[in-house]
């Protein structure tokens, strides 16, 4: 088994959800990630990321987030294990982020 | 004969107390001596009481006899050892000074310290449970063999190996220091949890013995709650879990010792006192920030004390199982979680999730699938249940599965 990183990206152009919707979404995430844990394929639940951030560029150029010029923002990550990239991609299906215009990037984690 | 009857399990309870105190005194090097003195005491008692009736205060009588036997032994040993050995654990002088302290306080302290010693990480879990049953609960070798569904010889060997290990590792009968107590407490709780489960889920048909195992696990857990150092939220959570589970004891088995499934249980037989007790301890367990598997399992057990199937009940159970799996994977948690999912979100979703579990080697996996496919695709349900039947060796399980197949149209 190899480890794979799920990078969750959220669509910033979507309207802000209501508190009720957020609670429902939380449950969707919980059920989905636990479904992977139930297959014993979750390595690290990972973390969600706050929307505020900074980007440092050459010459000490610092820009603030959120990045209104792009419609995608990094929302979080998790680590799963699978035999292949295909299997890992299969695990990513059902990710609640997809329901809200977001996406999941699946990348194998290189071994040192 | 005096009319008074002995309180149930008096010998067993007092055996464990006397052994703990004496063993604490002698150290594990001489654990057999402690056990022998305790056994001798009860032999004297049973012979004498059988002839002459019960003494006025049986416990005090036992303690006096045990003390005398211990002192005699020490004198004997001291004379012997002073001639042949110098590395004495107890010297002649100190022997004159000490009294063998069988006060309530010292008994509890000794048992608690003994619990930490036995539940040492160096001892295998199975051996820990055996030692706990023997030394802390006063069970006979035959009873332990019965509980583990094995023979006396196996248990004897297991206990001997464990005792050798206690000596080889030079494990002291003492309370762990402040730094290591949490780590050590974890092992103790695991053993108590396994001890309880051994009684609750054992395949043994001896239902009285099974209840005793659960009762003993609760008694030992309560011993931890009585001590300030170990009265922690996690211990309260475990005690709450045990209370909720044991509340269904009378309802989960019929007169013939046959298992009655949760859905078919008579709730009038559920023990309300134990449920209330569980709620009280679960409330105490909620203090602090720690969320352990015992908290989550107690939460699941709490919702099971409410028979009515509501959306709220199964949603809560599902979320507890989700958290449990995120803490630590186990096949049983994965299966139970999928069942809760079917109750909370419907069978269609649960079937998709169940098919992903890759637990086809377990009969309970096919039992779950059979359950999920029932009324959705009964041919498929039947095939799953038949597969479960092929994979199990337990007669009780086979009976339940055959019943389920019979109910399918």
Total number of beta strands of chain A:
6
In helices, the fraction of residues of chain A equals 25-40%
Largest sheet of chain B: none
Q: Output the number of helix runs of chain B.
A: 19
What is the overall number of helices of chain A? 2
Radius of gyration of chain B: 25 Å
Number of domains of chain A: 1
The radius of gyration over CA of chain A amounts to: 16 Å
Amount of helix of chain B: 55-70%
Main sheet strand line-up of chain A: 2-5-1-6
Number of strands of chain B: 0
Compact description:
The complex is a heterodimer of chains A (112) and B (409). By secondary structure, chain A is an alpha+beta fold.
Task: Give your account of this protein's structure.
The complex is a heterodimer of chains A (112) and B (409). Chain A has one domain: 2-Layer Sandwich (Alpha-Beta Plaits). Helices cover 25% and strands 38% of the residues of chain A. Chain A contains 2 helices and 6 strands, in the order βαββββαβ. A 4-stranded antiparallel beta sheet of chain A has the order 2-5-1-6. In chain A, strands 3-4 form a two-stranded antiparallel ribbon. Helices cover 69% and strands 0% of the residues of chain B. Chain B has 19 helices and no strands. Chain B is elongated, with a radius of gyration of 25 Å. The relative contact order of chain B is 0.06. The chains are: A alpha+beta (112), B mainly alpha (409). Chain A binds chain B through residues 27, 30-31, 33-35, 37-40, 42, 45, and chain B through 318-319, 321-323, 325-326, 329, 333-334, 337-338, 341, 345, 353, 356-358.
């Amino acid at each position: 088994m190899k480890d794979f990183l799920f990078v969750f990206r959220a669509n910033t152009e979507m309207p802000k959800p209501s508190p009720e919707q957020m609670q429902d979404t939380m449950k969707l995430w919980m059920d989905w990630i636990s479904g992977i844990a139930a297959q014993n394929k979750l390595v690290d639940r990972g973390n969600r990321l706050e929307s505020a951030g900074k980007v440092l560029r050459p010459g000490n150029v610092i820009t603030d987030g959120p990045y209104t010029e792009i419609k995608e923002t990094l929302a979080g990550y998790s680590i799963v294990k699978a035999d292949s990239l295909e299997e890992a991609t299969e695990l990513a299906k059902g990710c609640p982020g997809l329901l809200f215009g977001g996406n999941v990037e699946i990348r194998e984690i290189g071994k040192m | 004969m005096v009319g008074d009857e002995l309180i149930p399990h008096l010998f067993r309870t007092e055996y464990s107390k006397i052994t703990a105190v004496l063993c604490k005194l002698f150290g594990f090097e001489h654990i057999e001596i402690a056990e022998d003195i305790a056994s001798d005491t009860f032999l004297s008692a049973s012979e004498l009481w059988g002839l002459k009736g019960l003494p006025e205060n049986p416990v005090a009588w036992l303690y006096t006899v045990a003390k005398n036997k211990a002192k005699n032994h020490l004198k004997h040993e001291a004379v012997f050892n002073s001639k042949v050995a110098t590395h004495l654990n107890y010297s002649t002088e100190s022997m004159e000074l000490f009294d063998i302290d069988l006060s309530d306080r010292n008994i509890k302290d000794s048992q608690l310290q003994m619990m930490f010693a036995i539940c040492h990480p160096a001892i295998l879990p199975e051996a820990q449970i055996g030692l706990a049953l023997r030394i802390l609960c006063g069970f006979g070798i035959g009873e332990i063999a019965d509980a583990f569904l094995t023979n006396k010889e196996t248990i004897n060997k297991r206990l001997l190996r464990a005792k050798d290990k206690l000596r080889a590792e030079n494990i002291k009968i003492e309370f762990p220091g402040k730094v290591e107590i949490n780590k050590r407490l974890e092992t103790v709780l695991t053993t108590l949890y396994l001890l309880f489960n051994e009684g609750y889920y054992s395949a043994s048909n001896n239902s009285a013995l099974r209840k005793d195992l659960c009762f003993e696990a609760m008694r030992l857990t309560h011993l931890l709650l009585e001590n300030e150092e170990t009265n922690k939220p996690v211990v309260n959570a475990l005690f709450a879990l045990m209370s909720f589970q044991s509340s269904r004891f009378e309802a989960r088995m019929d007169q013939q010792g046959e298992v009655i499934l949760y859905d078919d249980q008579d709730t009038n037989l559920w023990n309300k006192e134990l449920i209330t007790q569980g709620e009280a301890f679960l409330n105490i367990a909620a203090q602090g920030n720690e969320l352990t598997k015992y908290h989550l399992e107690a939460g699941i057990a709490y919702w099971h004390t409410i028979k009515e199937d509501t959306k709220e009940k199964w949603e809560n159970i599902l979320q507890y199982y989700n958290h449990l799996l995120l803490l630590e994977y186990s096949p049983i948690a994965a299966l139970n979680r999928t069942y809760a999912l079917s109750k909370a979100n419907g069978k269609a979703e649960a079937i998709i999730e169940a098919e992903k579990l890759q637990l086809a080697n377990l009969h309970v996996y096919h039992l779950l699938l059979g359950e999920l496919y029932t009324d959705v695709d009964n041919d498929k349900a039947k095939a799953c249940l038949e597969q479960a039947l092929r994979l199990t060796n337990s007669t009780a399980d086979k009976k339940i599965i055959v019943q389920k197949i019979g109910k399918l149209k």
